[in-house]
Amino acid sequence: MNQMEQIETGTAPIAEPLTEQEQRKSEFRELMSQGLWKNNPSLVQVLGLCPTLAVSSTFTNALGLGLATMAVLVCSNLAVSLVRNWVPKDIRIPVYVMIIASLVTSVQLLMNAYTYGLYQALGIFIALIVTNCVIIGRAEAYASKNPPLLAVIDGFMMGLGFTLVLLLLGAMREIIGMGTLFDGAELLLGEWAKSLRIELFHADASLLLAILPPGGFIGLGLLIAGKNAINDWRDRKQAAILVHSNGAHSNVAPARVRATEL
User: Fold this and answer.
1) Can you point out the beta strands (E) in 154-233?
2) What digits encode the pLDDT tens for the residues 61-87?
3) 217 near 54, Cβ under 8 Å?
4) The whole model's pTM is what?
5) d(Cα 83, Cα 234) in Å, to the nearest integer?
6) Distance (Å, rounded) from C-alpha 1 to C-alpha 24?
7) What is the dihedral of CA 245, 251, 255, 256, to 10 degrees?
8) SS (H, E, C) 53-65
9) Are 229 and 175 in contact (CB under 8 A)?
10) What angle (nearest 5°) sits at the alpha carbon of residue 182, between those of residues 179 and 186?
11) Which residues are within 8 A (CB) of 246 and not within 5 positions of it... i.e. 6 or more apart?
């Protein structure tokens, strides 16, 4: 019996259950898709805007804070997932905040010791990672309900999505505002990174609108608008493919409807 006959008679084969390895791959792909695109912390959830808008004036600052946030997010998800069965529900939020605060303090001390210049440039925004709603949100919504491996993957993907948006915004603001890219990279990577600085064009006077907070709002709005435009284009493309497919198989459409109704 071919596929057309199966559709007409309503005897389409039942899909075989996924193996454990296939289920893990499917979960990994879904977590990656959620963190990087579908549920991106900055572009969809619009969380953590304080560091996103204040620190992303240069690529280097954005990279430093993005990596710090990602490290805290991964470690906090892991810790919350490990203790999820022992923490009473009534006090879970204070416990999560204490875990996050301890991790942020550790990251702050490490940056103070090894990247002091970047530590001074980021200032109070390193400590404010504690109040980042992305971290406490993922701890409550996902890590507290899933095993450690999935919690770590979720934290990494959400942190990566957050960091990529920071980098895009930082690069855009630095190029428009100062005409450079990777300026101050030695603060994060060492003296050898001075050679990474690229001067795209000579700016006699920097465009303050791009460097100051209004430039952050405008840049983030453009990124969100771009993502929405891409989503709309993909939806229209899928709808056109679906309409074309239904038109090509219009002769079996009534049978498909009857099979569904049965």
Assistant:
1) 180-181, 198-199
2) 999 999 999 999 999 999 999 999 999
3) no
4) 0.83
5) 41
6) 33
7) 0
8) HHCCCCHHHHHHH
9) no
10) 135
11) 253
Residue pair 29/22 in contact by the 8 Å Cβ criterion: no
- For 194-236, the pLDDT digits (tens) are 898 998 877 665 677 888 888 899 999 999 999 999 999 999 9
Residue type, 250: S
Q: What does the pLDDT read at residue 206?
A: 64
Computed over every residue of the chain, the mean pLDDT equals: 85
Report how far residue 178's alpha carbon sits from residue 114's, in angstroms, rounded to the nearest whole number: 27
Which residue from 188, 176, 211 is spatially nearest to 66, judged by alpha carbons?
A: 188
Dihedral over Cα of 188, 192, 193, 199: its sign:
positive
Helix boundaries (H) for 34-147: 49-54, 59-83, 92-114, 116-122, 124-127, 133-141
Exposure string for 36-58, b = 16+ CB within 10 A, e = fewer: beeebbbbbbebbeebbbbbbbb
| Residue with the two structure tokens 């428009």 | 176
* Amino acid sitting at position 129: I
Query: Contact 66/166 with Cβ under 8 angstroms?
Result: yes
Q: Quick one: how many helices (H) and strands (E) in the chain?
A: 13, 2
Taking CA atoms, 171 is separated from 72, 166, 216, in Å, by 23, 8, 11
CA distance linking residue 237 with residue 126, whole number of Å: 42
